[in-house]
Amino acid sequence: MYSFNYLKPVSIEDAASMLSESDEHKVISGGMTLIPTLKQRLARVERLIGLEKCGLSEIKLDGELLKIGAMATHAEVSESDIVVMENPAIAELASHIGDRQVRNRGTIGGSLANNDPSACYPAAILALGGIIHTTKRDINAEEFFVDLFETALEEDEIITAVSLPKPDAAAYEKFPNPASRYAMVGVFVAKFNSEIRVAVTGAGEEGVFRCSEIETALLKAFSSESLSDSTISADGLMSDIHAEADYRAHLIVEMAKRAVTKSARR
Amino acid sequence: MQYFSQGKILGFPVWFKLSTIRAGLICKLKMILGEIDVTQVTLMVNGTQHNEDVSDYMLLADFIREKLKLTGTHVGCDTSQCGACVIHIDGISVKSCTMLAVQADGCNITTIEGLADGDVLHPMQQAFHENHGLQCGFCTPGMIMSAIELIDGKPDISEAEIRQGLEGNLCRCTGYQNIVKSVHEAAKVERR
After folding, report:
1. Cβ contact A144:A152 at 8 Å
2. Which residues pair with A170 in a beta bridge?
3. Is the pLDDT of residue B123 over 60?
């Protein structure tokens, strides 16, 4: 690890102003990706700005929306009574990220800001049409996720919370890589009145994306049988040592079927 | 000569070693010049308060092992996968190789050394002892720390839940059978 200084601002405003001082300054929340990256010297920072004293971990109902503070850990989200009541699919998704120790440290804000192409949360936020609140503005999920590890966040912008509308039915299903347990394909399905929204993580060459083929098929009937004849083009899907693009295309349909079935059980 | 051949020192390319040494020297120099912050942290470890100066980028696992000399906490993979370094911070299990010492300032830490009460083993340690829940023993400290949090308040935990709950801990001897059995037994003791 290269050397750096660690700062502990006590408010998010102070954190944002420290961040804006230099490109070499970075924010750290749970550090479950950033610390391993620093250890391997894949990244170098002059100052690390820890958000642990900024108090952004509150989970509450904000009118109709479920508002989750950026520093809420995966363990807190999965065990929160409000999340379990209002949006059980999110609680269940959070309970399967990484392992217990990662869930005890990793945060929703950190996961979204990192936008790992195999991360689970981006699929949920995109499928639910969530809003990402930052120190500067509110960003719609559609505009937030730009490319692999790339978001609409500016250099000196920090996520403060995420707001999620309540779906009529929703569920997430992933096919974990047998070794790393990261999602090789993860599909989040959400049904709102007459709208179906489906987002896929782990598969796209440009990160998380909405899958219109599955959305259209599910419009006929929100059941796994609607997908029995569905196929998805492998264009734009990732190929790596774990899975070819056409296998991932197949997995998207299968995970979507399972997610729809799971959502009906709730 | 066998240690320095074909541009390599002990199997590492020369540029790698030199850059590592250089980075280390620059770092020391910066410390002397006061460019790198050394922060005083105050934390409770196994019931004893420690005030120590640490460089801001020191990992908590290194702090525990090298500063406090509590070498029961192991570093197996150093990539947050194996879980040999699991400790408790304010009662919550974390991988100490993926956290900085400065981040634990003001916290209450328990390591494997802090579990036994004198010669009386913690029920989880006792269960591992009685059920032969270890082979080489390297993963054991982390397994025990994770397992204690796992069964807390869950005396009726199932085998499947134990296997799922220990996914952050790897045993390279693949001795999972008796590890799971040990955790199950410890949960039963808790029920009594």
Report:
1. yes
2. A190
3. yes
DSSP letter string, A48-105: EEE-TTS----EEEETTEEEEETT-BHHHHHH-HHHHHH-HHHHHHHTTSS-HHHHHH
Closest B-chain CA to A37: B79
Q: Report whether pLDDT(B28) > 90.
A: no
Three state DSSP letters for chain B: CCCEECCEECCEEHHHHHHHHHHHHHHHHHHHCCCCCEEEEEEEECCEEEEEEEECCCEHHHHHHHHCCCCCCCCCCCCCCCCCCEEEECCEEEEHHHCEHHHHCCCEEECHHHCCECCECCHHHHHHHHCCCCCCCCCHHHHHHHHHHHHCCCCCCCHHHHHHHCCCCCCCCCCHHHHHHHHHHHHHHHHC
Interface test with B, best of A24, A34, A74, A99 (most B CBs within 10 A): A99
Largest interatomic CA distance in chain A: 57
The reported pTM is 0.91
- Which residue in B30, B79, B167 is closest to A36 by CB distance? B79
- Nearest CB neighbour to A36, from listed B80, B83, B169: B80
Is A98:A119 a contact under the CB 8 Å cutoff?
no
User: How far apart are alpha carbons A185 and A251 in whole angstroms?
Assistant: 7
* Residue A7 backbone phi and psi in degrees, to 5: -115, 145
CA separation for the pair A216, A197 (Å, rounded)? 9
Q: Is the ipTM value over 0.85, yes or no?
A: yes
B94–A101 CB contact, under 8 Å: yes
User: 3-class DSSP state for residue A47?
Assistant: strand
Rounded to the nearest angstrom, the minimum Cα separation between B186 and chain A is 19
Q: Does pLDDT of B4 surpass 60?
A: no
- Per CB-CB distance under 8 Å, the chain B contacts of A2 are 23, 27, 57
